[in-house]
Design goal:
The complex is a heterodimer. By secondary structure, chain A is mainly alpha-helical. Chain A is built from nine helices and no strands. In chain A, 67% of the residues lie in helices and 0% in strands. Chain B is mainly alpha-helical. In chain B, helix 3 packs across helix 4. Classes of the chains: A mainly alpha, B mainly alpha. The structure holds zinc ion (ZN).
Chain lengths: 197, 82
């Protein structure tokens, strides 16, 4: 989702032009589905989020003011839909600003250099499954920031707009998410290294 | 990994790997990494971690039946490309 994507006519979208809306769906549906799947780890829930995101977008487009980009706006709707699903399972889930400094220690625990593993090992089916599993171990408020910034490639600013968080909070959570995933991957790939030794 | 320098490197880690740090701070970090193997490994493996997630996600698209049901739900069947 960046500037090279086709530009959309806001006037046509606001007026309910179906062809233009279809183009919007075509352009962003894969990203929205991917976000929902990584956030919820359930294909059924991800599909619900995908459908509801575009249904809500369709309803809200006539009043869309264009203060953020269309993609950031769609992500914001999708994040809220995903959060509603999570809260049905655990009502206490929230990603609003809170005290991020408390608790979690971010000191790295593993110092194994696994970068030298061959690409086919790093990207094997088993490794890919582990990558999915590792991201599920992050608390939701860190997971969503990592997905938007590092997987979908939004800027810090776009991520903060999509999540309604300060840029400072986004940066703090991003660093925690990155370091936690690095530790999890280091433990996993470290074992692969030992198997080879 | 408890030295002051390692901690301050950790704090600037995101900005360092994104290349948005001031040049002078970059140089300090690189000077530290030259003598601290642990921090070198953390930086390299962190870069790799982000790369792996980005690379494995880029080619993930939704299954054809999910796409089909989405277009049906939105009444956009006629725009569904094969
Ligand atoms: Zn160090």
């Amino acid at each position: 989702m960046n500037d090279t994507k086709p530009a959309f006519s806001l006037d046509r979208l606001r007026a309910g032009d179906r062809e233009e809306f279809a183009r919007l769906v075509e352009t962003y549906s894969d990203q929205i589905y991917r976000l929902a799947l990584k956030m919820l780890a359930s294909p059924q829930d991800a599909e619900d989020v995908l459908q509801n995101t575009f249904l809500k977008a369709l309803q809200a487009l006539p009043t869309f003011e264009g203060r953020s980009s269309l993609s950031t706006w769609l992500y914001r709707i999708a994040v809220n839909e995903a959060l509603m699903v999570l809260r049905r399972q655990r009502p206490e889930v929230q990603i609003a600003d809170d005290d991020d400094s408390a608790g979690d220690d971010i000191t790295p625990a593993y110092f194994i250099d696994w970068c030298c593993l061959p690409e086919e090992e790093l990207l094997s089916a088993e490794s890919r499954a582990y990558l999915d599993q590792a991201i599920q171990q992050l608390p939701e408020k860190y997971r969503i920031v990592f997905i938007l910034r590092d997987i979908e490639g939004l800027s810090i600013r776009e991520t903060s707009e999509a999540l309604n968080l300060s840029e400072t909070a986004v940066k703090t959570r991003l660093l925690r998410a990155r370091l936690k995933l690095r530790d999890l991957l280091s433990a996993y790939y470290g074992e692969r290294l030992e198997e080879k030794a | 990994m408890d030295k002051t320098n390692c901690r301050s490197l950790l704090a600037s880690l995101s900005e360092y790997i994104e290349g948005t740090l001031e040049e002078q701070i970059c140089r300090e970090i690189e000077r530290h990494m030259a003598e601290c193997p642990d921090c070198r490994v953390v930086v390299d493996t962190l870069r790799k971690t982000i790369y792996l997630y980005h690379a494995t996600s880029e080619d993930e698209s939704m299954p054809a039946d999910v796409r089909q049901r989405l277009y049906q739900r939105l009444n956009l069947d006629e725009y569904l490309k094969p």
